[in-house]
Design a protein that fits this description.
Layout lengths: L7 H13 L2 H7 L4 H15 L4 E3 L4 E3 L1 H28 L4 E7 L7 H12 L3 E7 L2 H10 L4 E6 L9 E15 L12 H5 L2 E4 L6 H13 L5 E5 L3 H9 L5 E4 L10 E4 L3 H5 L3 E8 L4 H11 L1
Parallel strand pairs: 3-4, 3-5, 7-8
Antiparallel strand pairs: 1-2, 5-11, 6-9, 6-10, 6-11
Amino acid sequence: MSDPVIELRLWRQFIAVAEELHFSRAARSLHMTQPPLTQAIAQLERLLGARLFERTKRSVHLTAAGEVLLPQARELLARAQALPAQARAAAGGELGRLRVAFVSTVGFALLPHWLRAFRARHPQVQMELIEATGDVQLDAFARGDIDAGFMLHSPGFAPQGLAHRRVAHEPLVLALPEAHPMAAAPRLSLAAVLAQPLVLFPRRIVPSLHDAILGMYHAAGREPRIVQEAIQMQTIVNLVSAGLGIAWVPASVREFQRSGVVYRQLAGKQGASVPECETTLVWGESSAVLERFVEVVAS
């Protein structure tokens, strides 16, 4: 059999008697007469199956059970009194939880700025950050495991069926081993670059950008020589540093300063042939907390 649900009124009356250790004074503080208060304490003791007070004609004292329950009863009332304010805060997006996934590229510079700004404005919101590629994020959205995500894709290829807002647009740049002969060349030939072994992410990670990179090779009559695939941009840059090949990465990856790697951007007509990419904030079902986060990112 489950324990009875005890009204807050009884706990409030118990606290008054426990603090005054006098039924008449406690009744006055509660703006009631003594007999109903005495009956309420007796009811509480019956519900609990334990005596809370030892009474004599001259004194009232807490029992061991009363001593244990008093601080917990005070905490219970304090939490109950805080509920209306918490409800208003939650409805206004000032309290709650926000689960945000992100691709590694947004974590180099943009994401830390947004997180600082959001936490400064909404310190009571609990944030859960998950680093995940776009394909993983889409699965997480389908399961309801995340509220928002930052995704990388080619311009105009934001995920369908989800609300989204573009937050960055940048070119792809070339990551080269520092010791590579082209690293010191004053001008890079696109044809020479396309002949180099390539480190690339799998297509399932960012299909639109993968296809755009391969399309650049095919438009020049070349077939890319992919020597290694890697999921994370940091891993791709590390493989370039190891001399496995070159890589096309978003310009923001230049924030990841890895020894043994240099970044070059093709200029002029050759640069016009290099794909660009976008980062988009994507979200599903809206909430007050999520709306506050979108406002920070958009500001």
